[in-house]
Amino acid sequence: MVVRLEEKTKSHPDMSANALTAAIMWIEGVGRAEKVISGEAETNGFRVGLHMMATTPYETDRHSLAVRWLVIAAAVLQVLVPVLPSLGIGERIGSQSDDVRTLITPAGWAFLIWGPLFTGSLAFAIYQVLPRKRDDPLLARLRWPAAGAFMGNAVWALYTQSFGLSAISAAIIIFTLACLLWTYRVFAGWEIAFTRIKRWLVVLPLSALAAWLTAATIVNIAASLRYHGIEGGDAAAAISAGIVIIGGIIGALAVARGRGNPPYALVFLWALAGIYAAGGQQAGIVAVATGASGLLVIAGLITGLKGAQPGTWLGSPDAQNR
User: 19 with 114, same domain?
Assistant: First the structure.
């Protein structure tokens, strides 16, 4: 939905920012629009001329119960599929990863983050399926890519447990990352300060998952190369360090362009710490690369936060009551 303010009321040209925001939220709450609509919205005693046009495809899914439950199903599947090896179906992902471990494979403890990531995904899935959230404009933008990401994680786990970290597993995780970057882009372009509950149940879980998958995709590609017999030999340490630096640049750019998304930055730093604790202890050049990448991400965080509107991530008194 595209909203454009045509004019402020002539009787009160200095309408407050709160009234303006409320007017925008009022028009966002309208259902699907088939054509251009012009009119006025009244809020806090002021009237605002509005011009609205709904053109985005997500509008068609606002009232789709199936889409909301698809998110639930996908979130549950991504949690259940990794349990299959305990039932005798496939091998644990950790074992498959150990077979093609590289200098950029994080230490085992770093993967404990999947517990909070799964929990956050389920919390988001439950929150977005609530009846009163059916027409929420932010959630309407996130449902399809979130469902794709959760399903991608489930398919990746199923394939990897059965066949290992091959090129196909890399292709699956790239698809999953693309879905999560879609959600990340939505957050970056959202103009209204997030409410406290949305920061915890929407922004945090999806941003954290996007950050981890950014790092995991790089690790998966490196592991896939080794799976297919492509190794760096004596240059392996230098190549690994270069990959870590490239990953750090990607992470820093994502944070800076994402208005300093704190959950993304913190989880990416967690991944770098895991790489430092493993490959960084085997090759000094990898340790230096992880440190440099960490500084890049922190610089991106500071830059992004400077460009963010007040209250974007920490909220404001007004935002908490919306």
Answer: no
